[in-house]
Amino acid sequence: MLLTGLGLGLALGFTMQRGRFCVTGAFRDLWITGSTRWLTAFLIVVAVQSVGVFALDAAGVITLDPQPFAWLATILGAFIFGFAIVLAGGCATGTYYRAGEGLVGSWFALIFYALFSAMSKTGALAGPVAALRGVTVPASTIHGFLGVSPWPLVAILVTGVGLLARHHLRLRSPLPMASLPARSTGLRHLLFEKKWGAFTTALIIAALAILAWPLSWATGRESGLGITGPSSAIVNYLVQGDAEVIDWGVYLVLGILIGAFIAAKGSGEFRIRIPDALTTVRSIGGGALMGVGASLAGGCTIGNAMVNTATFGFQGWVSLLFMIIGTGAATRLFITGSARVGTSPALVPANR
C-alpha cells in the first residue's frame, strides 16, 4: 500500500510541472500585479478538495480529528514560510518539482528545507518549536467554533471560488495565441506539448488531493497531502537508519520529484541550471527558513494552506493569510524594492 504514495506523487509532480502550478507565484502576483488568477486556481483545489474530504468523512472512509489551534506558532511560522519561499524561488512542492527540472538552486533549497524541518521536529530546534506550538486555544475548526455543520461553509467556499473562476474565464482573450507547430500527436502531444491551463491543472490536483486521503489512511497515516513531515523523515532515515520513519508521505514526496523529472524530460524542459553565488546563498537561506517556518506553522502551503483549509481548520486559514503577508514582505524587500537595480532570477518563480 505504501507504493500508492509513490504513484500519487508521480502524478502530482507530473501535473504540477506541466501546469507550472506555483503557489509562490500565486501569492507574489497579488503584491506585484494585483492578479488573482493563480490564487483562484489554488482556491479551486481547496474548494473541490473540501467537498471530497467531508464526503469521505461522512461516509466513514476517514475520520477527521481536529487538534487544538497553536495560534502563536502558526502566525510566526506562516509569516516566516511566506517570506522564505520568495528567497528559495518556490514553496515546498514548487521546490520539489523545480529540483526535478534540473534547477540546482532548488536542489540547495530542498536539501536545507528537509534538513531544517528535521532539526525543528526532532533535532536541535525541536524544543523551542514544541514550546511555541504548545501555546494553543481549544477552537480548532471554523465550523466547530460556530457550532454548525461544515456543509454550509463548503457551499459558501465553492460558490465564492466558482464566481472568481467565472470572472477570470470571462477575461480570457478571444484571440488565438500564436504557437509552434506540434511535433507529436495523440497522448504524447496532450501530456508533453499542449499547454495546460491553470484551472484544468487545479482540478487535476484537487482530484489527487482527495484521493490522497483514503490512500494514506489505508497505510495508517491519518492525513492527506503533506510535504514537511515526509521531508523531515527522509533526513531522519538517512542519519539514523530507522526504516520505521518511511511512510506513505515519504513515498509521496519522492514520487513528486520523479514525476516532475519525467514531465520536464518529456517536454524538453529539463536541463541542469547552475545559479550564481547570490542566488545560491538565497536558496540555502530560503530553504532553511522554509523548514523552520513550516514546522512552526504545522505545515507548508500544501499541508496547511491547501489541505487544512479544506477541512476549515483555523490553522490552515490563518497560515494562508500570514503566508501571503510574508510573501508580500519579501516581495517588497527583494523584488519590487530592488527593481531599479535588478532582481535575481531565483526570486521570480517561472509559473508562466
TrEMBL record:
Pfam families (UniProt xref): Sulf_transp
The UniProt record lists the keyword Transcription: no
Cellular localisation: Cell inner membrane
Membrane-topology descriptor: Multi-pass membrane protein
UniProt keyword Membrane present: yes
Example of a GO cellular component annotation carried by this entry: plasma membrane
Primary residence: membrane
Chain ranges passing through the membrane: 38-62, 69-90, 96-116, 151-169, 196-215, 245-264, 284-306, 312-335
Alphabetic keyword roster: Cell inner membrane, Cell membrane, Membrane, Transmembrane, Transmembrane helix, Transport
Similarity comment: family membership: Belongs to the TsuA/YedE (TC 9.B.102) family.
Name of the protein described by the UniProt record: YeeE/YedE family protein
Species per Swiss-Prot/TrEMBL record: Cryobacterium cheniae
